[in-house]
Amino acid sequence: MFPWLSHFFSKRRRQLRPRAPHLESVAASSRFQLGPPAEVNAAHAYQQSPWVYVAINRIVEAGALVPLRVFRLEGEKRVGIANHPLERLLSRPNPLTSGFELLEQTIGSLELQGNAYWFLAGDSSGKPREIWLLRPDRVSIAPDASRVVAGYVYEIDGQFIPLDAIEVVHFRRWHPSNDFYGLSPIAAARGAVLSDRHMSDWNRNTFGQDQGVPAGVVNIRDFVSDGDYERIKREWRGQYGAGARKTAFLRGGTVEWQHIGLSHTDLDFLQGRKAQRDEILNIYGIPVGLVSENATEANAKVAERQFIERTLYPKLVRLAQKISQELLPFYGKDLIAEFDDIRPTDTEARLAEIRAAYPLLSINEMRAEYFQLPPVPWGDGPVSPRLPRQDDAGRGDPSSRPIPADHKSAIETELAQWERFALNRLDKPKQTRPFEVTALPDELAFEVSAGLMFAGDRDSVKSVFAGVKAGLN
Predict the structure, then answer these.
(1) How much is the pLDDT for 391?
(2) H helix intervals, 307-389
(3) Which of 215, 365, 376, 448 has the highest CB neighbour count under 10 A?
(4) DSSP labels for 15-60?
């Protein structure tokens, strides 16, 4: 069908192209237009839709509380950098904005407009000294065939301020039909937002001024003269057309009231508003259990975990990776930014994983994998709830070496105290204070701690200490 294609693809490419071949066409075909695409009035929806307000506020306030850390990559390791200049900048981005406000407004702009913009102000050193958030509805992107994005134009009060691409950090959500601007979640929720808004307006108008009586028809069965007809209309409107609810009393039997409106019950009003609420919250990733009045404590905890894992944490990853890509190069190479991992851990699942690894990993491997502790000289052997006997002395384990009599007495006393502490803590599951070790060697303390992690009853606790005491003999 297309014989020229065969000729075109006959020469196989043997190396990668220096850049994507479609970028020039995309930038050239996207002509500059002042202002981002107006899909829906996001600010208006946020101000007048209670569920949009609730959903966005839950996200932005929770996200702004999470601290950002800067790490240096050394091979496969990440080394934390305390008090990095970027961390200090984000804590006080400019004289008028706090760090909380900057993240709150940035995440809020993404949730409202699908775009967020940071303007970077620097000095002669070439590093940012201030960060200013730009209103997304005032920012226009200028495409360029060679650079894809030539820069940005900020419009305010009829003035157009050109901004270089390096001065602006553009955060955006994915848009399936736009190469430069992000998609606002409110565009997807537009139908639910408008429906909820109209239902709220109808409910307000029903009980508002001049709306106290539902719609209906006053039917005059018998023929009346024009004068009587006008008099009946005037008296009816004068007595029953006010805003307050009144009951109509008719005399003579020739005039009747016929109700033609729909009541709240007929419209299933409350269920309809709940359906709109659920749809809006689902679009924003807010589990209904977080706001439902019927949610139990267990349902609320599950909803909170889902919100953190599936909604909030991915949004923080989006911000951190963009900051790593466009801000950290000002401070050097091999730097990445990450927000604290706030995803909750399942204690039972973690313990089950440790139990499965218990017979397979050495002490040092357990320390590194599950406790983030450095290796120890005596940690090459397997983890065991019982200490090695004297016949294992040749393996170099300090716990197998003879212990002086005076020190042995102090160890036995501390083991007895620790055993009583562990048994008492079984009756107080919320007790988190650890036992303070003073006399026990590090290797013995680790053996006891590892054994107590799997001790769920009194007999198991006693067996852990019995094994340790037997190893001392």
Answers:
(1) 43
(2) 313-326, 347-357, 363-370
(3) 448
(4) S--SS-TTHHHHHHHS---SS----S-HHHHHHH-HHHHHHHHHHH
Token pair 């340790």 is at which residue? 468
Residues 367 and 411 in one domain: yes
Asked if 354 and 394 sit in the same domain, the reply is yes
Which 3 state secondary structure label does DSSP give 134? strand
Tokens of 216: 């209906």
Both tokens of 442, joined, read 């590090």
Shared domain for 160 and 33, answered yes or no, is yes
Q: How many other C-beta atoms can be found within 10 angstroms of the C-beta atom of residue 31?
A: 8
Asked if 148 contacts 29 with a C-beta cutoff of 8 angstroms, the reply is no
H or E segment to which residue 169 belongs: strand 168-172
DSSP H or E run through 470: helix 458-472
Residue 201 belongs to a domain: no
- Closest among 348, 374, 345, 357 to 446, alpha carbons compared: 374
Which helix (H) or strand (E) is 141 found in, with range? strand 139-144
| Same domain as 373, residue 328 | no
Domain range for 220 is 216-260
Is pLDDT of 398 > 70?
A: no
Residues 23/148, Cβ–Cβ less than 8 Å: yes
Same domain, 329 and 421: no
- Tell me the per-residue pLDDT of 12-24, one tens digit each, with 9 for 90 and over: 666 777 777 776 7
Q: Is 311 within 8 Å of 285 (Cβ atoms)?
A: yes
DSSP 97: B
Q: Are residues 245 and 319 in the same domain?
A: no
Q: Write the single-letter amino acid at 445.
A: A
Dihedrals phi, psi of 27, to nearest 5 degrees: -65, -40
What order do you get walking across the sheet with 77-80 strand by strand?
77-80, 68-74, 335-339
Give CA torsion, residues 410, 413, 418, 421, to 10 deg.
-140
Give SS3 for 132.
strand
Q: d(Cα 266, Cα 173) in Å, to the nearest integer?
A: 41
My answer on whether 180 and 123 are in the same domain is yes
Q: Are residues 26 and 119 in the same domain?
A: yes
Query: How far apart are the C-alpha atoms of 42 and 55, rounded to whole Å?
Result: 13
Q: How far apart are CA 55 and CA 50, in angstroms?
A: 9
If you search the block for the tokens 């450095």, which residue do you land on? 374
Number of domains in the chain: 3
Helices (H) and strands (E) in the chain, counts: 18, 11
Relative to beta strand 168-172, strand 115-122 is: antiparallel
Q: What is the pLDDT of residues 437-448, one digit of tens each?
A: 787 777 777 778
Instruction: State pLDDT tens for residues 152-185.
Output: 999 988 899 999 999 999 999 999 988 889 998 8
